[in-house]
Amino acid sequence: MFCLHKTTHKATITKVRFTEDPIPFKPEKNTKPVLSHGESNRRKAFHSNPVETNKNQKIECYPKSESDEKIIKKALEENDFLKKVMSEDNVQLIVQAMQLKTVKPNEVIIKQGDKGNAIYISSKGTFEVIVNGETKVTFTDQRVFGELALINDAKRLSTVKALSEGAIWCLDRKTYQLIVALNNSNKEEDLFQFLQTVDKLNSKGADTLRVVANLLREAFFEADSKIVREGDPGQLFYIIRAGSVTVSKVNEGIIGKLHKGDCFGELALQNEDIRQATVTAEAPGVDCLTLNRFDFQNYFGDIKITDISVQKLKSINEVQPEYMDLPLKDLTILGILGTGGFGRVELAQSKKKKQLVFALKRIAKFTIVLEEKQQHAYNEKYIQLNSVSPFIIRLYRTYKTKKYIYFLMEPCLGGDLFGLLHRQKKLRFTNEETRFIVACVMEALFYLHVRGIIFRDLKPENVLVASNGYFKLADFGCAKKLDIDGARTYTFIGTIEYSTPEVIKGKGHNRAVDYWALGILIYELLVGRSPFFNDGPDYNKTFEKILKGIAFVKFPEHFDGCARTLVQKFCKPNPWNRLGMSKDGIAKIRGDKWFSDFNWTDLAECRMYSPFVPTLKGPTDLSHFPRQQRSSRPEPPDELSGWDKDL
User: Fold this and answer.
1) Which of 256, 421, 543, 562 lies at 20 to 30 Å from 121 by C-alpha?
2) DSSP letter, residue 145
């Protein structure tokens, strides 16, 4: 399918280190490895508005003929990108929700440079695709265009104009995301409710049942088909959702029947043995839910065990703000640490106490309101303000004026991990160096996860180097606290190359996105570029690579074998199967072979040697940051709506 527009990394509301679009990575033969992004070309995060769902929400549908429905469905199914993203459960409702609109000759449907918010399917008429004023293609058939707008509101790469009177089918992104979120939420809730009725399993508790609901696979067996055969090795556990089966044994015949809510197949999984009987579907067929051997043993094991559940996430503790007696006017700006679309970060020094030096982030309130990111500003304040860890940048307090909000933070004068990576001689780190960096990041994520917080934008640009050579997580603009165990959120958020399959598909996500990102980070630090990097501006191809999976990614010869295995464990397509998501996930990660002989206690107490201690002339040394000129853009207008009264 011809891609009609480009997606860009959409910046979040706040950045400790702001980013720009990546440049293509083109390795040459017989040359040193090349980093996929120049140091000044840091990647921006994308961030759509969150999808709020409740059971009473209704999707508005528009009547259409049977032939129209077939045309729309055919166009959706033939689109290479959408057929990887859309599930069959959602297609029919998407077809019904599409609205027909007429177009006039020379009417512009999509304008290059505008933000995308809808997908279109040509119904009748002639259309042309224009890039930078030049016509690239004309078409009259029924095809999808503008499809990436279903994911986020990136700027359109092309203009699409009608050359004649015609009609198009339209669907806006909010409706699409609502369809996906409602379908997934309802499906998960239905499976959870059903599991609670299964006597053999409901003693495990709600937390475990909600996790298992995400791991189950549906399977239908026609009448008289053999679901399992006596003597075969066992790989699946079965729960009957509808219908009935007969259980038989050689030389004994039928020994019993099982019905809705009954289970079978556990003996071969518990004892790593063969099937003890043959199970046959009865008419008119049997609808089963299946669980693979690994997940069955992980969450159920011995069916008699009653106390298996996912790790409890503790509530966040309130931390008192610091430097409340330090007024904004008492700060002198010494230089710029980073700039971006939402504002800038500067090095600030107290006029009265010269030893007090801070990173001061300034964001225009008008821009926040324009981008509808008010809640994200609050999330950043309260999550980062209450996170006290040697592996997380401290936020001390906030200020506000008529034009700006300010975040007063701990400075990290060693620069960021992205710049440090770019300055390495081989444009990558050694295995030992990478292990130290990743361990620091893991400690930060563990701290957040046990408090119910997911970070959602892990990448080298958001990891800073402290004066002691340790690494700290920064920029909490994408972070979110989930109120209950097993909860998911449906916001399309993060950075393109670190996106997860569940985020791309809109199926909802939880802390598993951070474990996926850990795998991507390990790869990037050891190779110099991310595993799903695409040499070109078409992020559709990046999404396709991610959906294809880590199994198709090439690992260089120098890549450590244990590190490779760990990356594969973190980057499993099913989020519930990723390392870190089991009941003792943190311990399993720390105990992984790649971390053998690693002293986690020394790291936690900052007693471990760091090979990255920066050379600094003093507390105001900016030598580890690229020189930046102050922007000449005009001051933003006053923003007095009052949304920031609690900031």
Assistant:
1) 543
2) E
